[in-house]
From TrEMBL:
Domain MSP residue range list: 2-109
UniProt protein name: MSP domain-containing protein
PROSITE patterns, per database record: MSP
InterPro entries: Ig-like_fold, MSP_dom, PapD-like_sf, Sperm-specific_class_P
A family per Pfam: Motile_Sperm
Length: 109
């Protein structure tokens, strides 16, 4: 079971901007994920919860609002999705995460 992010890091202007990243499931099992941010005041993530099919991918949009330049991070927790799951938030709450992927966030002046 593995999950990767492409690109693996995010640089956005401190004045605000967006970046799109692809989460790639290289494994044979459907995954469920939850994304946590070290800075919920200046970053918005969409989607926060989701499923990724085996050998599939999911686009994630990172939006930064204006703020002081600083370093932050996103941590994506993931694990095997329950077979009958349709609600990613509920499904994530029912599993024990099997791994994490960290995306460094850099806001530049």
């Amino acid at each position: 079971m593995s999950l990767t992010a492409d690109p693996p890091a995010c640089t956005v202007p401190a004045a605000g901007g967006t970046s799109t990243h692809k989460l790639v499931n290289a494994g044979a099992d459907k995954l469920v994920f939850k994304i946590k941010s070290s800075n919920n005041n200046e970053y918005r993530i969409s989607p926060v919860f989701g499923f990724i099919d085996p050998s599939g991918s999911k686009d994630v949009t990172i939006t930064r609002t204006a703020g002081a330049p600083k370093e932050d991070k996103l941590v994506i927790h993931f694990g095997p999705a329950p077979a009958d799951a349709t609600d990613a938030q509920a499904a994530f709450g029912a599993i024990t995460p099997a791994g994490t992927v960290t995306i460094p966030l850099s806001a530049t002046a």
